[in-house]
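[job 4471] stage=fold_predict status=RUNNING
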Amino acid sequence: MTTQNNWITVCSDTDLVANSGVCALINEQQIAIYKISTGSDEQVFASSNWCPFGKANVLYRGLLGSVEDKKVIISPLYKQRFCLETGTCLEDEGVNLTVYPVRIEQNQVQLQLAG
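[job 4471] inference complete, writing structure tokens
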């Protein structure tokens, strides 16, 4: 894991599976990283792996989908849907996931930490 201007290299792009999530342990915190592929378009998102409803680190195992124009992760436990851009729960807007800026630079997945 390398850092540069608060960007941490987490893994290689080839470690991500299209339309699925993986989990990384960064600074003692589990972070889910998702890669969504539609045709030739690819997007990556990152959120806390902690499901606030199921009280477990399971979100990387959730289903990826979309609701209207929002990309979502659907919790594998109780099926709440969370917007991957904002972290907001679509069923209960008072509940949010922490989301992180993420990018792919030179085939490396990088996560930006606050700081």
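[job 4471] summary: The radius of gyration is 13 Å.
[job 4471] exit 0
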